[in-house]
Specification:
456 residues, alpha/beta, Carbamate kinase, VC0802-like, 8-stranded mixed β-sheet, 15 helices, globular, binds aspartic acid, binds magnesium ion
């Protein structure tokens, strides 16, 4: 099969006429055939999410909702759009309107219906982008992701089933990807294998759509267009002299995506990594600024630290068990307890008498309620502290180079910040440690300056 490129344009790149024209410029010069995964115009998914609840509670008039959405989308259409395009948009609006009336009459909102409604932003913008590209004489079509992406069926936050997706995508797209063809795929959703339900891939899921399609087509490259300068050495809002990182390994990018860098959907790295497809995060208006994610072949001894990221508003649940070190299966039981409460554990630190779980602050009460059932038989007591931030220092091979840990923790000590929990050694690409939320900015700047001061 011809080698193809996958482009992804997020909400900020699809949310204005100026941005849509910029997409055309990029696609005109792109290698073809190519795929474009697109997300809803900025703000539309949030609007739909709010709408399903307000409609359910009869707090909003449905025709008003449709009017607002029509206004938002028709203003993005180019002049002289075809009747066919306008009809295609109106068909989507009337389907959405019917779904909303369904919720309102039945006063019932299932996870399945909610997912379906959330996909309308992507459906609508695809039609509009097709019209823009068509006016540039580009040979363009839309293929619905339900014909390509098979999911595990978890509403709101589905994962793609890669092998099944590969089969389906190859069958559907292979015959279409010829010559100068451009295929638009609405991002963010797929179809479940079991009951053929439309399922969304979690917020910002279009990154994941792009890399899953890249995987399925063994793409040459996946280009994620963003209105930011790719991955940075730290959040520039806290560290103003942070710089762009030109290259990252898949492992580094995955650590950063999971731990705070809001550049890429955390699940998006793996499909590309499995087939060693480079992902390029490229600036939408300054395409020479980018971060390339690919297999690491750099000299590891130089500049081993790439970036310092963070997550705020976390809680630590410390569980005390005097006999903990001698109780077989305690950790397993606590893990099951967390799983039952649907807690995503970010980190664990253990000693003989205490096990500490790190999680988002809003989850901790659920975690406490769940572990209570192990008291007093297996655990003695627990304690919650909920004003933590996690700092994550990322760089391939940092766990194998002497002196890195001491530089990180000395830097934090120099600004008189206390380190509470440390997780090191599990990954060769990252150290994580927690500090109080209020101490985050100075700790972050101190670590960043320790490794990058010579650049300033
Ligand atoms: N439109 C969806 C969202 O806002 C998916 C995406 O942005 O990729 O979450
Ligand atoms: Mg979005």
């Amino acid at each position: 099969m011809v080698s193809i490129q996958v482009h992804k344009f997020g909400g900020a790149c699809t949310g204005s006429k100026r941005a849509l024209k910029q997409i055309c410029k990029h696609i005109v010069v792109s290698e073809k055939p190519c795929i474009i995964a697109v997300s809803a115009a900025a703000g539309v998914t949030d609007f739909l999410k709010k709408t399903v609840t307000t409609v359910l509670m009869h707090k909003v008039a449905i025709p008003e909702v449709i009017k607002t959405l029509k206004h938002r989308h028709f203003e993005l259409l180019p002049d002289n759009s075809t009747k066919e395009t306008i009809n295609a948009l109106n068909t989507q609006f009337s389907q959405l309107e019917r779904l909303l009336f369904g919720i309102s009459y039945t006063e019932e909102l299932t996870a399945r219906t909610q997912d379906l409604i959330l996909t309308f932003g992507e459906r609508l913008i695809s039609i509009i982008i097709k019209e823009h590209l068509r006016q540039q004489n580009i040979d363009v079509d839309i293929v619905d992701p339900t014909k390509l992406i098979v999911t595990d069926g978890v509403h709101g936050d589905a994962m793609a089933q890669l092998e099944k997706t590969e089969n389906k995508t190859q069958k559907t797209l292979k015959p279409l990807l010829q010559g100068e063809k451009v295929i638009i795929v609405p991002g963010f959703y797929g179809i479940s294998e079991k009951n053929h339900a439309v399922t969304v891939l979690g917020r910002s899921g279009t990154d994941y759509t792009a890399t899953v399609l890249g995987y399925a087509l063994e793409a040459k490259k996946i280009i994620i267009w963003k209105d930011v300068k790719g991955f940075m050495s730290a959040d520039p809002r806290i560290v103003p002299h942070a710089h762009n990182i030109p290259q990252l390994s898949y492992e580094e990018a995955a650590e950063l995506a999971h731990f705070g860098a809001k550049i890429l959907h955390p699940l998006a790295v793996l499909p590309a990594q499995l087939k060693r497809i480079p992902i390029e995060i490229r600036h939408f208006y300054q395409p020479n600024i980018s971060t390339i994610i690919r297999t690491n072949n750099e000299n590891k001894e130089n500049n081993v630290i790439k970036s310092v990221s963070y997550l705020k508003d976390l809680a630590v649940l410390k569980i005390y068990a005097a006999m903990g070190g001698h109780t077989r299966g305690l950790l397993a039981k606590l893990a099951i307890s967390m799983e039952n409460a649907e807690i995503n554990v970010l980190s664990i630190a253990t000693s003989q008498t205490c096990i500490a779980f790190l999680m988002k602050k809003e989850m901790v009460q659920r975690a406490v309620n769940s572990i209570k059932e192990l008291h007093p038989r297996l655990i003695d007591s627990w304690q919650v502290e909920d004003d933590f931030a996690l700092i994550c220092v990322v760089g391939d091979g940092l766990g194998k180079i002497p002196g890195i840990a001491s530089r990180v923790f000395n830097a934090v000590a120099r600004v008189h910040v206390n380190v509470e929990l440390i997780s090191a050694g599990a990954s060769h690409s990252a150290y994580h440690f927690t500090v109080k939320n209020t101490k985050l900015p100075q700790a972050l700047r101190a670590v960043h300056d320790e490794f990058f001061s010579q650049r300033n």
